[in-house]
Design a protein that fits this description.
The protein is mainly β and 175 residues long. The chain has one domain. It has no helices and 10 strands. The strands form 2 sheets. It has an 8-stranded antiparallel beta barrel with strand order 3-4-5-6-7-8-9-10.
């Protein structure tokens, strides 16, 4: 069994509260097939410009993803839950504005950025099944950016800023 350098980030959340983050490098993790991490991350973001409406309402997301190359294929998962307050004056983010859950099937790394693509099931804004998505993530901690674009009947684009968590992008993809 080949043991690779594989890290796991565990983030515990309570509603609207980050409890803690720990990074683990277990010594017993590995597989006979080679895989290489392309990008991974998790955290909380704020969408630039909120809902874009009037009145302006802030939107927070919980974002988690991983993409890796296994043999000649790209595999991975993507999750994004967008929450908004019930009213513009509230600071309680209790409304599920949008949920995107999908499979990553494509990835391109360019410097500190990775463009991840795939298809997702979406509820709320842009709802639908087998909806194409693209997320461009930039390496870093708080302040790093991500841009999520969804296709389907109502194409949407969200510019996000990481406020908690981290995004990792490998500087070079494995062949």
């Amino acid at each position: 069994m080949r043991i690779g350098r594989r890290w796991f980030v565990v983030t515990l959340f309570l509603p609207s509260l980050l409890v803690g983050t720990a990074v683990f490098a277990p010594s017993a993790v590995g597989s006979d097939s080679q895989s290489a991490t392309i990008a991974r991350g998790a955290g909380t973001t704020i969408i630039q410009g909120g809902n874009g409406g009037s009145p302006l309402v802030p939107v927070l997301t919980t974002l988690a993803f991983h993409a890796e190359r296994q043999g000649g294929s790209i595999t991975g998962d993507f999750e994004c839950l967008a929450r908004a307050p019930a009213t513009a004056a509230s600071a309680e983010f209790v409304v599920n504005a949008m949920y995107v859950t999908g499979r990553i099937t494509g990835a391109v790394v360019n410097g500190d950025a990775a463009t991840l693509t795939g298809t997702a099931t979406i509820t709320g804004l842009g709802a639908g099944g087998n909806v194409p998505f693209e997320i461009v993530v930039h390496r870093g901690g708080p302040g790093a950016t991500a841009v999520l674009s969804t296709g389907g009947a109502t194409p949407l684009v969200f510019h996000e800023i990481l406020v908690e968590g981290s995004i990792e992008v490998q500087s070079k993809q494995a062949d």
